[in-house]
Design a protein that fits this description.
This protein is mostly helical. The protein is built from 13 helices and 2 strands, in the order αααββαααααααααα. β1 and β2 form a beta hairpin. The radius of gyration is 34 Å and the shape is globular. 30% of the residues are buried.
């Protein structure tokens, strides 16, 4: 074996000294834990931002409820629960009851749903299952365009177009054909609960129709093909293969339309008649909760008057909550408590 002090050329090599030597400084690299901590701070920031968004929504809702409760305390102490069952609205005598406004809001909204739901679902079925390709895009665009029209434009159209048509043609015919029911009796003014329900129906048609169309479009094609393969007709395929699978989404669309109609203000104010009374006939004028707040809040002279109007806003808030609770119960009754399937 060759001597380690000599290389292959026969020259000597310098050997390291035998004494102790200082070690070269070791380069310290960041540990894995430090790297993970630096990598996680964007995730932590994102998580905090999402929590802040969720909590802010709850804070806004709590602030709204707090303000409504505090500012309606004077009316609540003066009338109590009788405020919601009273029918007198007399600012001169400081007697206030919200029942006519609750009645007008519910009747006009339900009437709007009775008119709008068949039209909306029919429009969605036509656009999804029957409409030619060249017509589908323009028709869907103009249907959704109805949602972009301001409510005051709807009110003006109702005053100059809808009210004369109701007064001269529709209301006299309804009184003659169905006056025996008590729902269509009285002088045909053109303004009233029927006009408010019709204008609300026109305003919520694009909401219900667009959502129903989107829900029906995601129903898988094999659902349609399977029903047709069993010998069903085209109408049976739409009814059994499409509408049955999309029923939960359609109910959700109806709920959104109802929410729009409950809170609508300007268009309803211009045609409902603005009279605080409860009448069986749909020809009679009425009043809604949103309309009375918009009409009288800026002119309310006394604190009790303002507090009564704020309490009507509180009533509208709770009516909305009750309607949504009933709607959830309806959804549960449709789905039988089962989770929504992926093809709905």
């Amino acid at each position: 074996m060759a001597d380690p002090a000599f290389d292959m050329s026969g020259q000597t090599q310098d050997l390291p000294a035998a004494g102790p030597q200082l070690a070269a400084p070791i380069e310290r690299r960041p540990s894995l834990l430090t790297n993970l901590q630096h990598a996680r701070w964007p995730d932590q920031l994102f998580r905090f931002a999402m929590w802040a968004c969720a909590v802010s929504v709850l804070l806004i809702l709590a602030t709204i409820v707090y303000e409504l409760v505090v500012n309606s305390r004077l009316s609540w102490n003066a009338f109590g629960l009788k405020f919601f069952s009273g029918q007198d609205w007399d600012p001169v005598q400081d007697h206030y009851g919200a029942l006519p406004f609750i009645y007008g809001t519910l009747v006009s909204s339900l009437l709007a749903l009775l008119i709008a739901v068949p039209l909306s679902v029919g429009t969605a079925i036509f656009l999804t299952e029957m409409c030619p390709v060249w017509l589908r895009g323009p028709l869907a665009f103009f249907t959704e365009l109805l949602a972009a029209i301001p409510s005051v434009i709807y009110g003006l159209w109702a005053i100059f177009v809808l009210a004369p048509i109701l007064r001269n043609y529709i209301q006299p015919w309804l009184a003659k054909a169905f006056g025996w029911t008590g729902l269509f009796e009285g002088p045909p003014f053109g303004y009233g609960m029927l006009a408010a329900g019709i204008i609300l129906a026109i305003m919520i048609i694009p909401v219900i129709s667009s959502i129903t169309r989107e829900v029906m479009s995601v129903v898988p094609s094999h659902q349609r093909e399977g029903v047709l393969a069993l010998g069903a007709t085209r109408w049976e395929m739409i009814r059994l293969g499409v509408l049955r699978n999309a029923r939960t989404g359609i109910v959700g669309a109806v709920i959104l339309g109802l929410g729009r109609s409950l809170g609508e203000t300007m268009a309803v104010t211009m045609v409902i008649g603005n009279r605080a009374e409860i009448a069986k006939s749909l020809f009679a004028p009425g009043y809604s909760m949103a309309s009375v707040i918009a009409n009288e809040f800026s002119e309310a002279p006394g604190d009790l008057y303002v507090s009564a109007l704020v309490e009507i806003g509180l009533a509208l808030f709770f009516v909305t909550i009750i309607v949504n609770a009933l709607a959830r119960l309806l959804v549960w009754s449709v789905t039988k408590g089962q989770p929504v399937r992926g093809n709905v």
